[in-house]
Design brief:
The complex is a heterodimer of chains A (122) and B (647).
Chain A: E1 2-6, H1 10-22, E2 26-30, H2 33-42, E3 47-51, H3 59-69, E4 74-79, H4 84-92, E5 97-100, H5 105-121
Parallel strand pairs in A: 1-2, 1-3, 3-4, 4-5
Chain B: H1 5-71, H2 73-81, H3 84-97, E1 102-106, E2 112-115, H4 131-139, E3 143-149, H5 151-157, H6 159-165, E4 186-197, E5 200-210, H7 216-225, E6 230-231, E7 234-235, E8 237-243, E9 246-250, H8 267-275, E10 280-286, E11 289-299, E12 305-314, H9 315-366, H10 383-448, H11 455-482, E13 490-492, H12 494-512, E14 515-519, E15 527-529, H13 531-548, E16 554-563, E17 571-579, H14 586-589, H15 609-619, E18 623-629, E19 633-641
Parallel strand pairs in B: 14-16
Antiparallel strand pairs in B: 1-2, 1-5, 3-4, 4-5, 6-7, 8-9, 8-12, 10-11, 11-12, 13-15, 16-17, 17-19, 18-19
Helix pairs in contact in B: 1-7, 1-9, 2-3, 5-6, 9-10, 10-11, 11-15, 12-13, 13-15
Classes of the chains: A alpha/beta (122), B alpha+beta (647).
Chain lengths: 122, 647
């Protein structure tokens, strides 16, 4: 499965790459919202992992656009600032799942599992 | 409408002085007049006695003259010898010296032998009744007194006397009507002495004065008794001799200034004095003026009331005294009223000064100045003084309460600021730490998945994983604490919330051997609150309570309606969690809601629970109160308002 990870923190990108590639997914990493949109235009990804707090343009905004333009792409929002409000905002832009940082590999995979199984059925 | 108290005080002063002034004016002048009038009456009564003395004195003069004449040897010889011309000459000389109007000697049958009056051929044939001579002969002893002489007798005695005696009646207001007469009898002071020869009367010597038109007596009375005093051109004192009801000798004047001869006495006086023989002293209408008068009857020789002796004092003088008193009293009363107004104003401002001061102080207090100036040095020892002191005490307690509230709100503000700044810090830190922490967690767990790890390395890695997990929990707590999120309020049944929360910790209590009870209050209404947040607060407090309580103890949750003690009278619900645990030392109670304050062992708590709870309840517009006694237990009371908008 092709997964795009968007985060301004290299360590988070690296963690996601290691966890997901171990599971045999194709992982692509970008460090900004613009980068994510560019990547999506060249090659629409099936799953997006997006951080909320990023410089220039934040994750909520990005997810909003992605969901408008590529509604079939599953979006998982991850944030180090997990408050009920961020959860509400995530829901409002139709993000599929939500994961609070920090997370263990198992927790991330647990979140991803239903999306992946859904994607494989298609 | 607003009437100032000062005005009221002045008005009552004015009213009192008005009433007092009017009463004293009326009573005073009345008393004064009565006193003056009574005095005048008394005086007039005494004056009448003096007048009577003068009247009698005149009679005494006649008596003396006649007595001397009767002893006169010249007369005796001439009478005995029948020498009429000598007798006549002697009588005329004596009559002139004694100012007698008539005098003479008659024989025992009343036939005149000699008289000083001119002979009158028209007078008729003697003997004509000479009442005084007759009485002397009858009694064979000298007689003196007032006597009424008929017009016929007067004519016989002397034509001039008859003319003098005639006084035409004059009508005046208040006098009884009378018919006019051609002739008038004369009223005389006269005496008669019988001349005895060998014990038998041989003749009678008589003489007297006609009172009609003779002002000698009345003027003597006026001049000696009243000192001829005048008032506004009129004589104050007047005297009159009445024949029956007619003035025959008087110095009471008519408006034209003539002696009021022929005028009559008022009917009431006539009845009292002449008919009933009483002495009369009162005010009476004399001719045409009011006089304070005294009348007494004059009796003739035979004791018959034939006339009246009168003295009177012009009443106008006394009326003027009363008017004068009025003139003095009225300005005095007005001055008194003016004085009372001034006094009233002065007293009112003295009384009202502290009151105005209190009003001013109250205004200042309303405006926020809790230290208004109150001058207690001049505090009167009256209710107003007590009011001032009470006001001062009230101010003191208001100040005390204000200080307490200020201190409390400062603490609360400090608490809020602490929360806010720590919240901001926590949010920043959490976000920054979470990213690297993701790295630590991920790679620790990835390493742990490897099968080729030696046991000690695996143990070390697991320690790292556990420590990192703790870090994660701390960060989670910090984030919870810093949450500045909006609430999602809904109508919330507190009892259901309590029951569901109790259900979550029931097992824990059971395991520890603590009795967990819920005692719901009655009529507890729903509150509007964020259910999950309130539950987390309740949970936090419940867990703390269970931690603090030893096995065998109890934790009780109760609810009741309660007005806020801090938010004046606002209605709300108390939810109290009471444990029988170790209690909280007083030093720690103030720090209880500080972030990161914890008495638990390191790793057992973040020290954020109560702080977070505090923030949540505060955002609901509620409060958390703590009561605790070391060794006995603690009570945490959550108060939530009813019908209160969320902050």
């Amino acid at each position: 499965m092709k997964i795009l990870v968007v985060d301004d923190e290299p360590i988070v990108l690296e963690c996601c790459q290691r966890i997901l590639e171990d599971q045999g997914h194709t992982v692509y990493l970008v460090r900004s919202a613009d980068g994510a949109l560019g990547a999506m235009k060249t090659d629409p990804f099936e799953v997006l992992l997006v951080d909320i707090k990023m410089p220039v343009r934040d994750g909520i905004d990005l997810v909003h656009e992605i969901k408008e333009r590529w509604p079939r792409t599953a979006v998982i929002i991850m944030t180090g600032y997990s408050t009920p409000e961020t959860i509400r905002k995530s829901k409002s832009v139709k993000a599929d799942r939500f994961i609070a940082k920090p997370f263990t590999p198992d927790e991330l995979l647990e979140i991803l599992r239903p999306i992946i199984s859904q994607g494989e059925r298609k | 409408m607003f009437y100032s108290t000062r005005l009221k005080i002045v008005a009552s002063f004015l009213a009192v002085s008005l009433i007092g002034g009017a009463v004293s004016l009326l009573v005073g002048t009345r008393l004064l007049y009565t006193a003056v009038f009574n005095e005048a009456r008394m005086r007039v009564s005494l004056d009448l006695n003096a007048a009577r003395e003068i009247y009698n004195n005149r009679l005494q003069g006649i008596k003396t003259t006649l007595s001397i004449l009767s002893q006169d040897p010249t007369i005796g010889k001439a009478f005995a010898a029948g020498e009429i011309p000598q007798l006549q000459a002697r009588l005329q000389a004596a009559g002139k010296a004694a100012e007698l109007d008539f005098a003479g000697i008659s024989d025992p049958k009343g036939f005149p032998i000699s008289k000083i009056g001119k002979a009158n051929s028209e007078a008729g044939v003697p003997p004509i009744s000479n009442p005084i001579a007759e009485l002397a002969l009858e009694r064979k002893t000298p007689v003196f007194g007032t006597v009424i002489l008929s017009p016929q007798y007067l004519k016989f005695e002397d034509a001039d006397l008859a003319a003098r005696a005639r006084i035409a009646p004059v009508s005046t207001p208040r006098s009884a009507p009378v018919s006019e007469k051609e002739e008038s009898p004369g009223m005389a002071l006269a005496g008669a002495v019988p001349i005895l020869k060998n014990g038998k009367p041989a003749g009678v010597l008589y003489g007297g004065i006609l009172l009609n038109r003779d002002a000698t007596i009345v003027d003597t009375i006026r001049d000696t008794v009243f000192h001829n005093e005048t008032y506004k051109g009129r004589n104050i004192g007047t005297a009159t001799i009445f024949f029956e009801e007619f003035r025959i000798s008087t110095n009471v004047l008519t408006p034209e200034g003539k002696r009021a001869l022929g005028t009559r006495i008022s009917a009431e006086v006539k009845t009292a004095v002449l008919d009933e023989g009483r002495k009369w002293t009162d005010r009476a209408f004399v001719v045409n003026d009011w006089y304070i008068t005294a009348y007494e009857p004059i009796e003739d020789l035979r004791g018959k009331r034939v006339g009246i002796l009168y003295v009177g004092v012009l009443e106008e003088k006394y009326n003027d005294i009363r008017r004068g008193a009025f003139r003095v009293f009225i300005p005095l009363t007005i001055a008194g009223m003016a004085f009372s107004v001034v006094l009233g104003l002065f007293l009112a401002s003295r009384i009202m000064r502290p009151v105005y001061q209190l009003i001013e102080a109250s205004k200042q207090v309303s405006a926020g100045n809790l230290n208004p100036e109150i001058d207690l040095r001049q505090a009167p020892k009256s209710e107003i003084g007590i009011l001032q002191k009470t006001f001062q005490e009230m101010l003191e307690s208001v100040r005390e309460r204000y200080r307490r509230q200020k201190a409390e709100s400062e603490i609360q503000l400090l608490q809020s600021e602490k929360q806010a700044s720590i919240g901001r810090l926590a949010a920043g830190v959490a976000h920054e730490i979470n990213n690297p922490l993701t790295g630590v967690l991920t790679f620790t767990h990835l390493l742990l998945r490897r099968k080729d790890l030696s046991e000690d390395i695996r143990k070390d890695l697991e320690t790292i994983a556990q420590a990192t997990d703790r870090v994660r929990k701390i960060i989670k707590g910090l984030l919870d604490f810093s949450r500045q999120t909006a609430l999602y309020p809904e109508s919330l049944n507190l009892h259901n919330l309590v029951r569901s929360t109790v259900a979550l910790v029931e097992n824990q209590a059971l395991v520890k051997g603590i009795l967990l009870k819920f005692e719901p209050g009655e009529n507890i209404p729903s509150v509007t609150a964020d259910s999950s947040q309130i539950q987390s607060v309740l949970m936090n407090i419940l867990l703390n309570a269970l931690d603090a309580t030893d096995p065998g103890g109890s934790v009780t949750i109760s609810s009741r309606l309660q007005s806020s003690s801090e938010k004046a009278g606002q209605k709300g619900v108390d939810l109290a969690v009471t444990d029988t645990g170790c209690g909280i030392p007083p030093d720690n109670i103030n720090k209880l809601f500080d972030p990161f304050f914890s008495t638990k062992e390191v790793g057992q708590g973040t020290g954020l629970g109560l702080s977070v709870s505090y923030g949540i309840i505060e955002r609901h517009g509620g409060t958390i109160r703590v009561q605790s006694e070391v060794g006995k237990g603690s009570t945490f009371t959550i108060w939530l308002p009813i019908e209160e908008k969320m902050g």
